[in-house]
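hey team, just a heads up i'm posting the complex here instead of the shared drive bc the drive is being weird again. everything in one block, sequence lines first with there labels, then the predicted structure for the whole assembly after. its two chains so it's a bit long, scroll down
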Amino acid sequence: MTMPTDKRAAPAAVQSGSARPASLWGDTLGNILHQRNAIVGLTIIGFFIVVAVLAEQIATFDPTTVLLDVEKGAKKLAAPCIHALGCAAERPEHYFGIDQNIRDVFSRVVFGTRVSLQIGLVTVGFAIVLGTTIGAVSGFLGGAVDNLFMRVMDVLLAFPALLLSIAIVVVLGTSLINAQLAIGIVAIPIYARIMRASVLSIRERDFVTASRALGESSTGLLVRRILPNALTPLIVQGTLGIAGAVLDVAALSFLGLGAQPPLAEWGSMIGQARNSMFSAPHLVLFPGIALALTVLGFNLLGDGLRDALDPRLNR
Amino acid sequence: MTRTKTRSPILALLATMAIIAAACGGAATPAPSAEPTPAPTVGPTAVPFAGLQYPEDGNSACGTEGYEGQMGLIKAIDATTVEFTLCAPDAAFLSKIAFASLGIQDGDYLASTGGGGDTLIRNPVGTGAYKLKAWTSGSEIALEAYADYWGEQPGTPNVVFRWSGEAAQRLVELQSGNVDGIDNPGTDDFATIAADPSLALYPRVALSTMYLGMNNTKAPWDNEKVRKAIALGIDRQRIVDNFYPAGSSVADYFTPCEIPGGCGGDPWYDFDPAAAKALLTEAGFPDGFATKLHLRDVVRGYLPAPVVVAQDIQAQLKANLNITAEIDVQDASTYLGAASRGELPGLFILGWGADYPDVTNFLDVFFGVGSGIRFGDKWEDIMGPLTEGGATSDPAARAALYTTANNAIREHIPMVPMAHGGSGTAYRADVTGAHSSPLGNEQFSAMKAGDRDTLVWMQNGEPGGLYCPDETDGESLRVCTQINESLYAYEVGGTAPIPSLATGCEANADSTVWTCTLREGVTFHNGAVMDANDVVTTYAVMWDAAHPLHVGRADQGLFEYWTYLFAAFLNPPAA
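-- predicted structure starts here --
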């Protein structure tokens, strides 16, 4: 997993077919498109991205509007009503039914997509930036700095992730931002360790030594030579990490420590409807499906990326 | 409301002995004070009964400087007679002394525990049909029948209390037969239970009020127009229709109308969003403002779905008044504490369930002289008629005074009364004697769980402590009711006071002196015999804030119910 994919390895990877000299990214894309997992994952994620971007157009109601204000006779916990599936035409359509606060579940699930994707990207982005910096500096400098950073990371890793995030949220106060921050902090050690391992192995390679001999500064070596070659495992881990982050924030929201009402967020939707699980199962079913699909999408893509980016598996 | 809560137990013991010595003194020789006073046991061979009185000097506390309470003097006439002298007539006296917080404690046991701390809180000693067997924190409280109980032995020898905040879990436990009875089924589950032949639903009369509180010392609630805008700007009917079970109603008054005399005066304002918005503009907030909406996520009879109701209020505030209210769910005991201390800056959702069926239990508790500061500063024109009403026994005169008070509340709007919440309990169908108490104090000794020897009851939460003079939570009081008994009790499943540890209490002509005759042969769970001195000590400990045994729970020690019941402490702590 820590094998570098430097450019000199690329021509060997594309043996037959293309006569064009391939780039790293071109290669990767080509490889991904040969992975069935990755394609399925990409499709799912693409679908959700479209939903998130076009949420206003897709949703049939405002996600926080109480239907009583706009629609006479709306009943709480009403089952889904879809005209195409035989629901009486005079009844207003609610694809996923109505929730305990008399809001349209479909619109809430749609807007929840936006929140969840944002959470995943922001959280993992935060963790990657900090983790990479710590890992790279640690691996490159070595010695006491390395020791200090890595022991701090060990301490963070020693706590169960969700428990530590709950503790962080309780200290910072309950809000979606703090929940993301907490999940992000908890994820830092993973990226720091991956980055450090990559840097440790790459900094001893001949092309690094060559650069150093040519007079490249330490910063230049790290930023221009080592980092680009250490990205692969990070990308894979990051993609898988998004799935984890989406789940973790949903878990915090389920516990009431993340998204605050009336924001439409899948975890909090499931959490608030848990007492109606038997009388109105659609309240937990649809956000649950959306959550599961998103996580599945990122996991499949992550798996696909790992295969695509691993030169040992090149076909 | 800060006060030293822990005192040296040695000091406590010395002081207790001093009190006893003082009571024994008077005309008698000082000799008895030298020897330890024997346990107040009453037996054929016991030393002559030395009755306690409080205050020790035998002078009524009424009219003394700085004292605003209604209790004047408590005196043990003989081993089985206690005399209460009140500062003013009290028509609700019997209902008050039946309350669970006034359950009679063993005076010696109180002294031996220092009047508080974990020993007392977790090991209650009472006279009830059940005694505590084990309290496993976070899991369950087990009670067993008390073999030497003075009355009839309970139908089921063991009772186990369990708890879950989740209505769905409580229902599943009941359906699967793990528990025999549950409190507060979810609003949407009433129909499910009624349709299930193996279960029985017992609706509970709506003797409770949910209100939206505001602290008038905090901006913008210091502006009466803002408070009125909130009162006019929320459609309460919509909340009751959609989120409350059958049997609930919109609150037209703070006191539910089932309470005699509670419903005098003009009913609450009608929903009028346009007028509300105009008032808010007039108050200087044409574009609304941002605030918080505080609550605890605990289901109570007055609030069947806390976060759901909060979200609807939040949505209405936004839609009708453009007020952005951030929902702030707090830990239950933190929340109750913050509310009592008047620290909540935003709107807060709370409620009140009847302890005894009298107007004083609603209005005096929230707006009377002894009420707290949860709504900020008090209003003289609300307090005045309440004080007068509590001291009036003529029903017509009382009704007139409460009408005045209700109208003053409507004018000042310290809070918005939202709903009287109907709730219920559900039991397995083979539980005989099952009932819902309108006061929330179901009596398990009156039930029999089929052919099983243990009745398992699942309520909403774990009690904070079982020394009930210092508890206010219904979850604690229900457990205390099984273990401790008061001089009177409420009839099973009802609200009328009936004799319990007292066989009767007689009032003098103007209802200011009540003489109670105690039941003979009553023993505490530790074997001690109950006598009049235990009654005096139990009451004195709550009453006198300077009493060495006035300690209670380490994190509480407020003895709030005393001030609800009798207006004020003796030697009240400096505010």
